[in-house]
Amino acid sequence: MYGLILENMSEYIRQVYGEDRWEEIRRQASVEQPSFSVHQVYPENLIPRLAKKAIQVLGVTEKEFFDQMGVHFVGFVGQYGYDRVLSVLGRHVRDFLNGLDNLHEYLKFSYPRMRAPSFICENETRQGLTLHYRSKRRGFVYYTMGQIREVARHFYHKELQIELVREEILFDTVHVTFQLTFDNRAFTQASLAMTREEKHLPIGASVLFEIFPFCIVFGSDMIVRSIGNSLMVILPDLVGKKITHFFDLVRPLIAFKFHSILNRTNNIFELVTVEPILTERPSDRQRNEILLSDELDSVDDRTLRLKGQMIYMDNWKMMMYLGTPVMPDLNALIATGLYINDLSMHDFSRDLMLAGTQQSVELKLALDQEQLKSKKLEESMRKLDEEMKRTDELLYQMIPKQVADRLRNGENPIDTCEMFDSVSILFSDVVTFTEICSRITPMEVVSMLNAMYSLFDTLTERNRVYKVFLGSKS
Fold it and tell me: Where are the coiled-coil regions (predicted)?
């Protein structure tokens, strides 16, 4: 789990309930970090631990806490510029909801180890829609509800009501169904636009396969009928076989079946090959020698990842997958046996591959430097936290805790003074201390004083009284 969610929780508690409450929650949850780095990965159990203690300390329900934490998140991410991304994700609320998976794909560039949820819209009307939420994580249902409601209010100025219809766990995935009620007149306008698209000019299949070299055409029986030119080179046995024998569906989190895909064509689909791509070409050995030794870890994964759109071809009664290979760098391209000219020339796939390679070294160096700075900062924060605790302990030994806390909060020292009708005071003194010191060694004096002070400290704590040391002139 990235620190972005943890830092949002920390800031929400500090702003709404105060710094003292956050410190108490952190102490009870046995969390040492005073703050969290948004790009660092933390253990998954941190959120449940902190949330459990927060609910107890703050005296709120789980629904109220996570809901308001989700509302706060929308404003919190504005500090990092993500509010601009949220504001342009869709013209209407329905567009935003349909594009939530696209948003998480974009965020994966900054958070590559993110375990993103999946969102699917269906049963859309003028009054709202049904939203399906699937996630590998548990406990974020109310958090998601608060986020969606706040986005509709903040960016689209619409009041959105969200109802939890059903929540179930299938294998290791949480499946939640929400009913969203809001002004969705944009749905009617979109439906009219779809009817006008039927008048588009036809295009030949051969041209289509050239434009989309990684496309896949399959029928309701999931058997592949045709594939793009580049895909034919690396997966020549795919045609005539079931697509499920060669590919796994990574996103969205639905069953890899024809009817499931047909109802989710507005989502981005990510496929990954079941087996690694094994290409035996004369130049493969020479190409592998290009890889640097410190980059061998990234070559172990030779699976091919495709990301794209599913379109139902009514004339063919088949589904066409318009996919593009996901290649983070040239090493991934080399590992799967592809070349630059295998990528589509009608989009920016080739340009992005070459441009990304030019910047990868500089970006990696900058990232390493930032991570090093972040570690040093966290270490400094940890040491500062330890020193503050030591300072508090020393201060409480000199001044009563309740008085010290009031002085720290900025109260006038005179205002902390109190009057008592009667108090019990015990004065103690070491009789003939000077004479005793003249008869023993300095180390024996130190040992005697340490033993005496330790005894007084024990009696003081046992009887819950306060000790004041007065310097003696003897």
Answer: 367-394
